[in-house]
Design a protein that fits this description.
about 180 residues; alpha/beta; Rossmann fold; globular; Protease; C56_PfpI-like; protease; peptidase activity
Length: about 180
């Protein structure tokens, strides 16, 4: 299995309220495999990360989602946190950006509360994925099958439940991005 991401650009879509480890650990995994991560957000400047409910560090935004072209990226990562995906799903540019990765059949990795943005983009119907347990009903109502597993892969869509799942999530995410379009 290919695990090198040399030359691959990976969009990390996040905003204020992102769960820090769910952003930093996958970003480190992409960099460690030779990929080029970029932080895409709904606002320029910096985003405020959290460790659970406590403010942590801020991270510089590389590009706003309004100025980002999904065609320029090989994959998409959607970190969780409660506030982050809740804000993303209300931004039309963010929703279009996410949908474009599914239309192009590019790998997408999502963790924790991140699937809220997928639901808003209308891309989970007929899919199987996992998430933070409180999203189970939301996903089922959107036509998805929810499973309680550390990591689950459905045709290039990698999903995990929580920060404790990050080692398995990062490994599968890198594998799916290395495979490319599905």
């Amino acid at each position: 299995m290919a695990t090198t991401l040399d030359g691959k650009r990976v969009a990390f879509l996040a905003t204020d309220g992102v769960e820090e480890d769910e952003y930093t650990k996958p970003r480190e995994a992409v960099e460690g495999a030779g990929g080029q991560p970029e932080l895409i957000s709904i606002k320029p400047g910096e985003i405020q990360a959290f460790q659970h409910l406590d403010k942590s560090k801020t991270y510089p935004v590389d590009r706003t989602v309004a100025d980002a072209n999904p065609d320029d990226y090989d994959a998409l990562v959607l970190p969780g946190g409660v506030a982050n995906p809740d804000q993303l799903r209300t931004d039309p540019d963010a929703v279009r950006f996410v949908r474009a990765f599914f239309e192009a059949r590019k790998p997408v990795a999502v963790i924790c509360h991140g699937p809220w943005t997928l639901i808003e983009a209308g891309v989970v119907e007929g899919r199987t994925l996992t998430s933070w347990p409180s999203l189970r009903t939301d996903l089922a109502n959107a036509g998805a099958t929810w499973v309680d597993e550390q990591v689950y892969v459905d045709d290039g869509l990698v999903s995990s439940r929580k920060p404790d799942d990050l080692p398995a999530f990062c490994s599968k995410m890198v594998e799916e991005i290395a495979e490319g379009k599905h």
